[in-house]
Structures are given as C-alpha cells and as structure tokens.
Amino acid sequence: MNRIGVLTSGGDAPGMNAAVRAIVRKAIHYGIEIYGVHRGFMGLINSDFVKLDISSVGDIIHRGGTTLLTARCDEFKTEEGQRKALKNLEAFGIEGIIVIGGDGSLRGANALSKLGIPTIGIPATIDNDIAFTDNCIGFDTAANTVVDALNKVRDTATSHERTFIIEVMGRRAGHLALYTGLASGAETILVPEIPFDLNAVCDKIEKGYIRGKLHSIIVVAEGAANSMEVGKVIQEKTGLETRVIILGHLQRGGNPSAYDRILASRFGGKAVDLIIQNTKDKMLGLINGELVITDIEKVLSATKPLDMELYQLSDVLSF
Length: 319
Ligand code: F6P
What we know:
Elements: E1 3-8, H1 16-29, E2 33-37, H2 40-45, E3 49-52, H3 79-92, E4 96-101, H4 103-114, E5 119-123, H5 139-160, E6 163-168, H6 175-184, E7 188-190, H7 198-210, E8 216-221, H8 227-238, E9 242-246, H9 258-275, E10 282-287, E11 290-295, H10 296-300, H11 308-317
Parallel strand pairs: 1-2, 1-4, 4-5, 5-10, 6-8, 6-9, 7-8
Antiparallel strand pairs: 2-3, 10-11
Helix pairs in contact: 1-9, 5-6, 6-11, 7-8
C-alpha cells in the first residue's frame, strides 16, 4: 500500500488530534503517503483531501477538537453517496482509510470496506458506548471535565442547601453519567439502561436532608429523562429548592488528558500497522490494557453493557 487516508467523523472527541498525529507519523515512518480528509465522510464525497507531512501534525497532540474538522453526513448513508466517495478515493489513489469516530463513523467504515476499500476504525466518542473496547478516545477527558464541573456545583449546592440536577451527555447510553456520578459522589444517577422511580429518588433526597445533608446532586444521563422535568418533579414533591444544569457541549472540548493522548497514540500507530497489511473492516479496542482487533460488523451488532458493578457500588455509597 502506497497511499492511505485518515478522517475524523461525528462528534469531536478530545484526543482525535493525537490519533491523527500518530497515524501520520507512523505512515511516514513506513514511507507511505498519507492524506487527511476534511469534514469526515462529507470530505470523501467532495474530494476534500490534503496531503499531510510530519510538520502538519506538529503542535496538535495537546489540542481538543479535530484539526481535520468533522461533520455528520446524511449523503454518505446513501448508496449514491458511498459510490461517489469510492470514485474519489480511486481517482486519488487512496488505497485504505482509517476512520476515527463513534458508531456512525464505524458504520461508514463498514460501508466503505464492503465496496472494497480496506478500513480500520478507531473508537472516539465521549459517550464511550462502543462495544469491544473498555475506553473510547475522549471519554476520560470528558469525564474529568464533568467531575470538575460537579466539584464547582457542589460548592454552591452546599452553600445554598439546594438540590442540583446535572444533565450529562451520552446520547442513548449512561456510561458517562455513571462514571462521573460515582466519581463525584452524586446521591442519585439516572441512566437509560436502568428504570427508575422519581418517588424513590425524592424519598432518598428527603432522608438525606433529615439526616443533616446540606445538598443533593442528581446526575441525569441525557438519554434517561428530560432533566428539566426531573427538576420540576423533585421541587414539587420535596418542596426543596432545585436547580437544573445542562452541561452540554462543554463536555466535548478541552485539552485531552494524558490517558486519552496515550490511548489515541496507541490506536493510531497500530491502525497503520493493520492497514498496510490490507486488513479490512476491523476496529481497534483496548481491553484490560491490551490492544484488541474486532470485526466492525461484530462491534456494530453489539451493545456495550453498563458496568453494573459500578452502578451497584454507587448506589451503596450514596446512601
Ligand atoms: O456522540 C457525542 C455527543 O456529544 C452525544 O453525547 C450527544 O448526544 C451528541 O453528540 C450531540 O450531537 P451534536 O453535537 O450534533 O448536537
């Protein structure tokens, strides 16, 4: 293989740049030409390619977001869009593509490989909802961002003796909410994977106040409930002063943590090793500290289970 491409797609995740840097430098180390694709799959359709060299990825390992830019591309979901992308790749002589992103991006990589282009997927999403990897690039940084925000909210919650509802991202999954809720000592964590009863949540809050607690922090995964509604119900039922905070996109930004930079560098380096061996349709993952390789089809047909040990522990510790 003489020429490969790399793209970032879907929601940006801190550490994507570190992965791109590793891919570019490892490819150049092997004497392979490497092209960046701007704006994910949209860039494949529009032939938005740029040749990358060692210095084009200098000074980016520590930066959040993605210097290749990203997009969500509906046209690529169609067969016509995929054929256009294939034609452009062939015209450019790009023989394999490394795709960095979440489940939508892996779906795109899978579609390309079915058309005959070798693809390697690198999981990168703050939602951490990809099966066959313990961690996705960006999750650790986002979790630290949320915990930092929760530390700050705690100061106000205690001073005003208030109940705070904090909505965190995660789309349909509760991994980010569970992890950050446990790390922050939240009283209650609501996740889409586990049914909950707001009456029981209110009872728990009230018991806490009776015991002398000065505040309550409820972490709500965006896929679990409407946090504004949760806040309204809790205030009405308990009579306690309640505030709702939606952390939103600030969770996706910021400098990647050391963990995410190293994970991204490992994934990026290994992805080049795989693609130059003509490996098709595989995703890299990290399980128990080891790099693992799984068929993208298998990844896409699986749902990552919530860590029930963490969930049960959080419940016991937050009594
Ligand atoms: O997948 C990452 C994520 O941040 C989700 O947690 C969230 O639901 C979604 O993307 C938001 O998407 P957008 O940035 O397109 O509004």
